Amino acid sequence: FLEIPRHFYETQPFQQGNVKHLMIAIWKGVHGSSKDQEEAYSYIQYQVNRQIQNGAKYLDLNVDEVSYNLEEQIISMKWLISVVEKLSTVPPSVDSSNPDIISAGLETYTGKQGSPMINSVALERIETIGLVKTFDTHVIITAASKEGMPNDDVERVKNVAQLIEKVDEMKIPYERVHVDPLVFPISVSPLYGPHF
């Protein structure tokens, strides 16, 4: 079990009935006592094993919710990458909405498990695609526009086509490119059903 530090009781997710266990484990690993760090390591080991046993080819690692402070997020990503690399047999998928956090994770990863993945590149942060060549990664490109989520299937295809142009320009092999068309359930909006 992962004991929740008292200060997490004051956070909005906790007060809304949510316990973000990985966020707590990362905090304990970065800031906790040696006992907290052992607990964090053990929890992360459990999650890594669970994901791999269920067929994961990459482990998606995201620290965006750990803090709103970029420096804290970067420290957390570096810590998480270094711990997961010791425990995993599959490479990380470094996931963030901030290219600086992705870059920090990729700089920390030694490549022991193979080529990592960037999750993700979108038109709203197209500069992230440069990291694909710098770190020789796979990449997920999403159908998001510069303004956010696409309104329909036509916009999705247009957005992905613009990213593929950038992929071609940078000579990124297609076998390293994975497309997320941003498929949403009808429960989010009845407009999504006809898109697919």
Task: Give a brief description.
Helix content is 44%, strand content 11%. The chain has 196 residues and is of the alpha/beta class.
The biggest sheet, with number of strands, parallel, antiparallel or mixed sense and barrel status, is:
5 strands, parallel
Low-confidence stretches: none
Which class do the helix and strand fractions yield?
alpha/beta
Secondary-structure element order, as H and E? HHHEHEHEHEHE
Kindly, what is the distance between the CA atoms of the first and last residues, rounded to a whole number of angstroms?
41 Å
Question: What is the averaged pLDDT score?
Answer: 93
The strands making up the biggest β-sheet line up spatially as 1-2-3-4-5
Helix content: 40-55%
Oligomerization category of the chains in this entry: single chain
Number of strands: 5
Shape: globular
The helix tally amounts to 7
